[in-house]
Write a structure and sequence with these properties.
With about 625 residues, this protein is α/β, with parallel strands linked by helices. It has three domains: about 120 residues, no CATH class; about 120 residues, 3-Layer(aba) Sandwich (Rossmann fold); about 375 residues, Rossmann fold, CATH 3.40.50. The chain contains 23 helices and 22 strands. A nine-stranded mixed beta sheet has the order 10-9-8-11-12-13-18-22-21, sandwiched between helices. A seven-stranded mixed beta sheet has the order 3-4-2-1-5-6-7. A two-stranded parallel sheet has the order 14-17. Strand 3 and strand 4 form a beta hairpin. Helix 2 runs antiparallel to helix 3. The two termini are about 65 Å apart.
Length: about 625
């Protein structure tokens, strides 16, 4: 190409190609220069790049290399030409300018053409019957989606246009895809496309556009009314080069909360690798996610403990369905955490390194009625699990608690606070034991907000009410809650296990909480979900306020004032040093509480709980089962 560029430059300059009577054959000079150019191209990394991935970086390398070669020709023309000819320049400025242009074209053109050819072949192979689509988002944001579609990794999709929220971008194009109009012209754009023979089947929301809040709610609602499915690029997978990009249906979780808190996975994978993991309540929403993620992170083995046969079967079925090469083996055992002897046996036989305690009763209205049952599971069940983990020599024990355990006013919060107290006291008690031959089990509590999409939580409840035509029931207009995703919850749990086991930044037992930003008003959440479904609040679907229920408060508190904060050096996770009674102070109270709970004495159980939980001042009364079931459930984890 270099030799050809020199020849074409001489031909195109329009004068006799070379002066006569040269001392050296000019073709030898051209071949020598072409050979010299190989060194320049190598230095500019032209041979390191594959043509199928040609990009602006490669074009910059070509630009740099050609500039260097042109400068060499310029110097040679001024220094050597007078000695080879009769004082005349061999090339001249015009020839060098032509050479520069021709050389860039000859080096860059084949690369661009080859990449275009490969992209065409790939699209032809993958998109034999493509779905017609439009991308929603600013032109710059749409670029990543269009690239994924061009690469053929997003499935059989063909993008015909872009709909941008910025009116100034109308008429522009990204990678040859035109911007058809703005987001307030959706119906007109879809109708116009249909008149041109383009029946849109998908609307792809650019990742950055998901955070534009109310605008995207209206856009998704409009597409749903028109029967066009909205999908999104899987941002989490797109950041992992080992996994293909994937497109998923846009779900309510994508728009309900603040930007996700990203926890570095590599330190977690290093910690998980080779660990034996136990998950109690592993058939639940969070437990099953934790089981799957532990297996994929490289654990040596995972044991699921679950008292529900159906839930245990479902999680093991899901693990088998999503199993990848190299995933840890997962086994499950039917076990009630109230059965102390069985917990001790199973833990001892499995010999875990890390224990996640997710099993609990978690519905506020039901636990206000069933106090003794709440104590037997949330308090005594935690005692059994923690003691079994310590006896089995586990390195770390992680209790999944709730933000309702902070200054609790409900039985759910109070029993979870007692569970926190016990593991904190047990963690401290191990420091006083004289037996140093056995490694100490570290125990930590993790307080959760409401986890989006978990069974019985507010989001599925609202979704079911909307699908039924309404009304959507909200307890109080002023009620607010913290929200987090399942992925954030599992990352937080493994982070808690890691920093607790390593004990580099936490000396005493600690409480960890994800930084969930500002709490979300439940009434606003209901309105947004109604819009996402394609309706208007108060017109298509009504919102009805039913009044707060026993045990509920308007907002949750993440930490008590007496819990000093700790810096653990991990962005997005907040920790506090636990303040709890000693084991000698707890055991007599827990013994009386166990006696009352086992006897089914709800009133006496509540009175004993109040001895340790001063904020539990809700008067005891019998709550009709119908009332306990109405209005949805405020469920954490």
């Amino acid at each position: 190409m270099t030799f050809l560029a020199l020849v074409l430059a001489l031909v195109l300059r329009g004068v006799p190609p070379l002066p006569e009577n040269l001392a050296i054959n000019p073709w030898i000079i051209a071949l020598g220069f072409a050979a010299f150019s190989l060194l320049i191209y190598g230095a500019c990394s032209l041979y390191a790049a594959r043509w199928r991935f040609a990009s602006l970086f490669d074009l910059f390398g070509i630009f740099k290399a050609v500039c260097i070669l042109t400068a060499v020709l310029l110097l040679a023309d001024y220094i050597l030409s007078p000695r080879l000819g009769e004082g005349a320049k061999l090339l001249g400025g015009r020839t060098l300018a032509i050479y520069w242009c021709v050389q860039v074209i000859l080096l860059g053109g084949p690369r661009i053409a080859y990449r275009a050819y490969r992209a065409w072949r790939r699209q032809t192979a993958h998109n034999r019957d493509p779905l017609s689509a439009v991308v929603i988002g600013r032109a710059a944001d749409a670029d990543s989606v269009i690239r994924a579609v061009e690469a053929g990794v997003a499935g059989p999709i063909r993008v015909f246009g872009i709909i941008s929220p910025v009116i100034q971008e109308t008429g522009q194009a990204v990678r040859g895809i035109p911007v058809w109009g703005t987001t307030d012209q959706l119906e007109t754009i879809v109708r116009s496309a249909a008149e041109r023979g383009i029946t849109l089947q998908r609307a792809i929301i650019a990742p950055e556009a998901l955070h534009t809040g109310p605008l995207m709610e209206d856009v998704i609602g409009a597409f749903r009314r028109m029967g066009i499915a909205t999908i999104r690029l899987d941002v989490a997978h797109s950041m992992d080069t080992a996994k293909p990009l994937r497109l998923h249906a846009v779900i309510d979780d994508d728009l309900l909360i603040r930007p996700l808190v990203e926890v570095a996975e590599e330190p977690l994978k290093v910690f998980v690798s080779g660990k034996r993991v136990v998950v109690t309540g592993g058939g639940g929403s969070i437990g099953s996610e934790l089981v799957l993620r532990s297996a994929q992170f490289g654990a040596a083995a995972v044991l699921v403990l679950e008292h529900s046969e159906a839930a245990l079967h479902a999680v093991l079925d899901r693990v088998e369905l999503e199993k990848r090469p190299g995933d840890a083996p997962v086994e499950g055992r039917l076990c009630d955490i109230r059965d102390r002897a069985r917990m001790m046996t199973l833990m001892a036989d499995f010999a875990p390194d890390v224990v996640f305690h997710a099993a609990a009763l978690k519905h506020v209205p039901h636990l206000e009625r069933e106090v003794s049952d709440a104590v037997r599971t949330n308090v005594l069940g935690t005692v059994n699990t923690a003691d079994a983990a310590v006896a089995a020599g586990a390195t770390a024990f992680v209790l999944i608690s709730t933000d309702k355990a902070t200054e609790p006013v409900s039985i759910l919060g109070a029993t979870k606070r007692l569970a926190e107290m016990y593991i904190q006291a047990l963690d401290a008690a191990q420091l006083l034991t004289a037996d140093m031959a056995r490694a100490r089990t570290r125990l930590v509590a993790v307080r959760f907000g409401n986890v989006l999409g978990t069974a019985g939580s507010v989001v599925p409840r609202f979704r079911a009410q909307i699908e039924a035509g309404g009304p959507v029931t909200v307890t109080d207009p002023a009620m607010v809650r913290y929200f987090m995703t399942r992925r954030e919850s599992t990352d937080l749990l493994w982070t808690a296990a890691r920093i607790t086991a390593e004990a580099t930044s936490i000396g005493r037992s600690a409480i960890l909480v994800l930084n969930m930003g500002q709490p979300v008003r439940i009434a606003d959440l209901a309105e947004r979900m109604i819009k996402l479904a394609g309706f208007e609040p108060g017109k298509g679907v009504d919102i009805v306020f039913t009044g707060s229920r026993p045990g509920e408060r308007m907002s949750e508190i993440l930490f008590e004032e007496t819990e000093p904060r700790l810096d653990i050096g991990i962005r997005g996770i907040v920790a506090a040093e636990a303040r709890a009674p000693t084991m000698s102070q707890l055991q007599p109270v827990f013994k009386r509480l166990e006696t009352a709970a086992m006897a089914g004495d709800d009133v006496r159980s509540r009175e004993i709980i109040a001895e340790l939980v001063a904020d539990l001042r809700v008067p005891a009364r019998v709550i009709p089962l119908r009332e306990a079931s109405e209005g949805g459930s405020e469920k954490q984890a």
